[in-house]
Structure prediction request, 241 residues.
Amino acid sequence: MKLSIVIPAYNEERYLPACLASVHRAVEANGDSSLVTEIIVADNNSTDRTAEIAQASGALVAFEPQNQIARARNAGATMAAGDWLLFLDADCELNDELLRDTLEVICSGKAVGCGSVVAMPDLPRWAAHMLAGWNRISRRLRWAAGSFLVCRADAFQELGGFNTTLYAAEEIDLSRRLKRWGRKRGLRFEILDAHPLVSSNRKLRLYSAREIAWQTLRLFLWPFGTLRNRNALSVWYDGRR
Prediction:
C-alpha cells in the first residue's frame, strides 16, 4: 500500500519545517515493509523559501500558480502515486498515534476515508468553545477538517477532487461526496477522535476576535456567495503569515 501525503503551502517557511519533521517521525514510527509513503508539498505560488524547504526535506514539489487551497491540494494529488491520499495543512503536526489510527482505518478495507478532530494550543475561552463546537459537528456529520483529510485515490479521482469553485469549506464538500461514494460501495467515512490533530493557533495571533467574528457571521448569513468569493474570505486569503 502506498500513501501519498499532500501538504498545500503558501508562504509557509515558518511552519513547514516542523510539519515535515512530524510527518517523517510519524512515518518512521509506523513504518513496516507493507507501507510506502511519499510527501508532496503543493507550493501555491509562494514568494518565500517554501519550495526550497520542501525539496531539502526530500519532498516532491508540485506548483499551483493560482492562490486557492482547493487548487493547491488538487495539484499535489495530480502528482501523487499513492493508493491513498492524506491531505495535511502546513501549520499542523502529524502525531504518531493519529497516523497509526489512520493506517488501521485504511487497512480495515471498510472505509473510503477519514478525518480527525483538531486540537490547538493556548486558546482563549471563546476560541476553545468554537473549536469544541466544530469538533462536535465534525464527529456528528462526519465532516473532515481541511487540515486533515484522508481518502482513497480512486474515489478522489472519480469525484474530481476538491471543488475549485469554493475558496473555503471545500473539505466539507468533499467529505459529503466521499460519504455518498462510499455508501454505494458499503464503505464508511469516519472521524478519528482518540488522538487529535495538533494545529497552530496562528489565526488568533494574526486576526482579532472582531475580524474572526465578522468572517464567521458573513459565512453564516451569506454562505454560498461568501464561499465562492475569494475577496470575501480575508481570514484565508489576505496573505497574513
